[in-house]
Design a protein that fits this description.
single chain; 5-stranded mixed beta sheet; 13 strands
C-alpha cells in the first residue's frame, strides 16, 4: 500500500467503537483490497469502508462514522449519506476537494489563527481550519456557520518551532494554556476517533502473537486477541471494571482455547523380533543402502514424548536382522537391548 513502511504481513480493516471490534476484513500483499462492487464510483479503500458499514444493523438506526485521511473522500461521504450514515474525518487534497481550499495549504502563515473556511460539494462540507497548520476535513453531520458550531476548549501553546509558531504565539501571548473556541467537528473528531487505536492498545497489553511460518497463524492470533479485548470491553461496560485487562486476558484465553478432550494413543508399537533362523552372525555393519534411518529401538522403545530426545538416525544395521540400530561405539545400548527383548 502507498506510504506504508513495509509490504509484509496482513492489513486488517476494522469497524470499531471505543475499542470494540465489530467487523473486520483482512488484506495482504498478494491479496490486496478487492473491489466489493457495491459502489463503483469509489476507490478500493472507499469501497471497503462502504462494505464494512453495510454490516451494521439496519433497524431504522442512523450512525456517525469517523475516519482518518487514509479513507476519506467526497464521493465516499456522499455515498454514506445516501444510506443514512453520517461521516466526519480529516482528509487529503484529493480530486473532488475544492481547489480553493487546497491552495490554503500553501498560505497557512497568512491565515488568521482558528480561521475556518468551508465549501459544500455534493452535500459534503469541505473545511479548512487554521490550527498549528492548515487542517483539511470533510463532514456531513456538522455546520460551521452557527454559534453552536463552536465549543470552548483548553488549548496548549505549541512550541515556537512549530509550523505556524510565531502566528500562534500572538494568540497565546505569555499564557502556556488558554481557553479558546474550536469548531465542533474538530472536537467531535478528537473525541470519537481512535476506536481501532484503543483496540490495538488493549491487544498490546497481552499479545499472543508469536513468530510462525504458517500463513494463517498471525490471523488466528489476531482473532484470539480481538476476542479477548471484545470480551473485556463488554465486561467493562456491564460492570464496574472489577479487574484490569492484564488479569482478565489469561483466563479468558484459556476459556477460548479449551484443552482437547481427544486422547492420543499411548500404546507403544512393538519392534520386529530378532531373526534367529539365519546363518549370519548378529553384527553391526554399514548399511548397503547408505541411507540414514531411525534406530528401530530408539523409535519404538524410547519415543521423544518419554525421554525428551528424538530417535537417533544411523546408517548401520544388524546384518542378520536387517534393521537399523545404533552402534555400541556411540555409547547407546540399542543393539544389545534389541537382541535381548
Amino acid at each position: 500500500m502507498p506510504n506504508k513502511p513495509i509490504s509484509q504481513g496482513f492489513k486488517i480493516f476494522v469497524l470499531a467503537d471505543h475499542g470494540y471490534c465489530y467487523y473486520f476484513y483482512p488484506a495482504s500483499r498478494t491479496k490486496g483490497v478487492v473491489e466489493v462492487g457495491m459502489a463503483k464510483e469509489l476507490t478500493k479503500t472507499g469501497q471497503m469502508v462502504y462494505e464494512l458499514v453495510q454490516t451494521l444493523p439496519k433497524d431504522n438506526k442512523t450512525y456517525d462514522l469517523y475516519l482518518d485521511n487514509y479513507f476519506t473522500s467526497v464521493n465516499l461521504f456522499k455515498a454514506l449519506r445516501e444510506i443514512q450514515v453520517g461521516a466526519c474525518g480529516t482528509t487529503r487534497p484529493h480530486k473532488e476537494f475544492p481547489n480553493l481550499l487546497k491552495k490554503l495549504k500553501d498560505l497557512g502563515s497568512y491565515i488568521p489563527y482558528h480561521k475556518v473556511c468551508a465549501i459544500p460539494v455534493n452535500d459534503v462540507l469541505c473545511v479548512a481550519w487554521q490550527d498549528n497548520n492548515i487542517v483539511l476535513a470533510l463532514t456531513t453531520i456538522h455546520t460551521v456557520d452557527q454559534t453552536d458550531d463552536y465549543i470552548e476548549r483548553t488549548r496548549r501553546r505549541p512550541q515556537k518551532t512549530s509550523t505556524n509558531g510565531p502566528l500562534v504565539h500572538k494568540e497565546f501571548g505569555e499564557q502556556a494554556v488558554k481557553n479558546m473556541p474550536i469548531p465542533r467537528f474538530i472536537d467531535d473528531y478528537n473525541s470519537h476517533m481512535g476506536g481501532v487505536d484503543i483496540a490495538n492498545q488493549h491487544r498490546a497489553v497481552y499479545d499472543t502473537h508469536i513468530k510462525a511460518f504458517r500463513s494463517w497463524w498471525p490471523l488466528w492470533n489476531w482473532c484470539l486477541d480481538v476476542g479477548i479485548v471484545n470480551a473485556y470491553k463488554i465486561h467493562s461496560f456491564r460492570r464496574q471494571l472489577s479487574k484490569s485487562l492484564l488479569l482478565f486476558a489469561p483466563p479468558m484465553a484459556r476459556y477460548m482455547q479449551p484443552t482437547s478432550t481427544k486422547k492420543r494413543k499411548t500404546e507403544d508399537l512393538q519392534p520386529p523380533k530378532p531373526q534367529n533362523n539365519t546363518s549370519l552372525p548378529h553384527l553391526v555393519v554399514k548399511s548397503y543402502l547408505k541411507v540414514q534411518k531411525r534406530c528401530i529401538w530408539c523409535l519404538y522403545k524410547n519415543p521423544k514424548r518419554q525421554t525428551g530426545q528424538s530417535p537417533s538416525f544411523t546408517t548401520f544395521i544388524c546384518q542378520a536382522c536387517d534393521v537399523p540400530l545404533c552402534r555400541p561405539e556411540t555409547g547407546r545400548t540399542c543393539f544389545r537391548n534389541f537382541h535381548m527383548c
